[in-house]
Inverse folding.
């Protein structure tokens, strides 16, 4: 079964196609390639698994490919430059299409290069990790990390299509699967209590890679994200609730030097901290921690220290006019952005988490 | 006298303010700074001349500054990265405003960094060269060069305001002044015969830095460019006529290794070649060459060779679907974009120019 959602953004609208067996001849991706040329951007882990299948879906097009080193540590301007170099070497023109085949890192880099090459060319997302399928491939946020802060260099640039073949999850490591579930849990926590409850009932099936459960979780996550993005493409307001747990999470990643903890792991601990800061009922925060724990994800940061985390947060994108902004929960299933948080409580949360 | 034009781009509309004595306390630029912080991006030549005056216009704001090395050779991703580093060091947030004080290189880099930092912050153009005042500061094209091609890395990102103090031209070298006049002549040639005739009558006054003549030429150029940009912000069609002479010109710059010839010099020779390719009357092409020559600008490329130029053009942004596109003249004052040019004539033009 194939499901198609649409991200409604006027002339920048695009489909998210979700299904099994889409790669390798069952979907005419060539139709979404504007010109004659495309460059597939993948990484050393994913390319050997799915590059040939993807090529088969691009019949009649001139296809080049590049495999980047794997991992968040390589999400740098230097790696983006290597992709730009490949485009220049191939004399790629304005009609060229980049195709990101891989996880969030590959998608973010390829999207950013597409945003910058000749002031913007088309790109397509073919996410192969759960995290990329439910989060980073949708919504047009692209970018690379600066040594001092995550995603500090980037652009809003929407893809032409997001093609999600759920079969690619069969090769995903257990750790990566769990990291993706962190974002899935996030959608329930910030925007949909019914989905949160469904996750409580199906978390074991998801961990066991039950195909039906995964397909539903991906579809629901993409739906919730699409609605939020359609309302606020460039994050002038409400879209920022998608950053629930991310202010703390990014600080963890920054202090760890990107790569030690996966993004999904960092935001898991971050969501627990953000829930504590929210001052919601113990019952609600308990349910969130419990679900995260059952997903095999951390509910506490590694040993960093409250001071270092606070310092690292000083550079987060959600800092505005020198006053930090946080995404907090009104209750489970309902989030808001606020700069009006309790500073003492923030200190307590940081100290308790780092105790 | 101060003139204000508006670039009409819906919610991205912005004013171009043109006048004498604007810097140094006569214009409230602080009003256009969104947040509390700004970073002035200038270069080592311009900063000593106008940085203090610009600071005086930003009363009440937190102002940092950075001086880049001067020249097109430094319009690189590495230089852009040094500006990004300065923003990160200063813990600049999403409300920060970049202010470009200088010529086209400074404006293009600062605009590109503004487009990429945290996926886009505000910026202001304070162009101090004639070329930047009549061309690069208006229209939102930003970017840096790749070693193998000009402006291959960039973004469309509109400024909040363009502030043109015509007094800054007093410190502009004669060579830079002439290079700016190349773009002024271009506007007449592609879009307005009346203005072209006016230039024929006033070129000597412009070369003598007559204040009234310069102010009129700047205003008229900005008007013509604004209209074209308002119709086609992202260069899907007609905006490309602004690239008249640029396909040849970029090839000259690329073969010369950026910096030997100024941009305005390269496009001067490029415009003469493009006029030859157009097949317009000898009278029209003669008038164009004559005006360019009277402006003290080259009407022939340096000794590169036809083959090298053709090769270099293969990477130009105006190459689409592997068929080159050229901006040609229907007649003087009227241009069009075409892929349907006479290939033999192109060869003849290249050989004649490189003979």
């Amino acid at each position: 079964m194939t499901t198609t959602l649409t991200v409604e953004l006027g002339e920048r609208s695009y489909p998210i196609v979700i299904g099994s067996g889409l790669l390798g001849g069952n979907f005419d991706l060539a139709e979404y390639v504007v010109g004659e040329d495309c460059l597939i951007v993948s990484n050393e882990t994913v390319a050997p698994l799915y590059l040939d299948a993807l090529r088969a879906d691009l019949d009649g097009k001139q296809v080049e490919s590049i495999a980047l080193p794997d991992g968040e540590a390589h999400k740098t301007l230097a790696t983006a430059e290597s992709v730009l170099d490949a485009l220049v070497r191939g004399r790629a023109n304005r009609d060229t299409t980049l195709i990101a085949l891989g996880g969030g890192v590959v998608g973010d880099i390829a999207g950013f290069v597409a945003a910058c090459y000749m002031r913007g060319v088309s790109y397509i997302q073919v996410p192969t990790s759960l995290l990329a399928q439910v989060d980073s491939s949708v919504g047009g946020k692209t970018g690379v990390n600066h040594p001092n802060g995550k995603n500090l260099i980037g652009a809003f640039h929407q893809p032409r299509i997001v093609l999600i073949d759920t079969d690619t999850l069969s090769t995903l490591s257990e750790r990566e699967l769990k990291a993706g579930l962190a974002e899935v849990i996030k959608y329930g926590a910030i925007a949909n209590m019914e989905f949160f409850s469904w996750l409580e009932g199906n978390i074991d099936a998801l961990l066991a890679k039950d195909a039906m459960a995964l397909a539903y979780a991906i579809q629901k996550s993409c739906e919730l994200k699409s609605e939020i993005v359609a309302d606020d493409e460039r994050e002038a307001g409400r879209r920022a609730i998608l950053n629930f747990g991310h202010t703390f999470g990014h600080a963890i990643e920054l202090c760890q030097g990107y790569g030690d903890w996966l993004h999904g792991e960092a935001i898991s601990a971050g969501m627990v901290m953000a829930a504590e800061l929210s001052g919601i009922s113990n019952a609600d925060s308990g349910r969130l921690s419990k679900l995260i724990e059952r997903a095999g994800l951390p509910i506490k940061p590694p040993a960093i220290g409250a001071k270092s985390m606070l310092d690292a947060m000083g550079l987060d994108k959600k800092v505005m006019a020198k006053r930090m902004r946080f995404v907090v929960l009104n209750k489970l299933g309902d989030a808001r952005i606020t700069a009006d948080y309790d500073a003492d409580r923030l200190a307590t949360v940081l100290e308790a988490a780092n105790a």
Summary: Chain B is about 45% helix and 20% strand. Chain B has a mean pLDDT of 94.
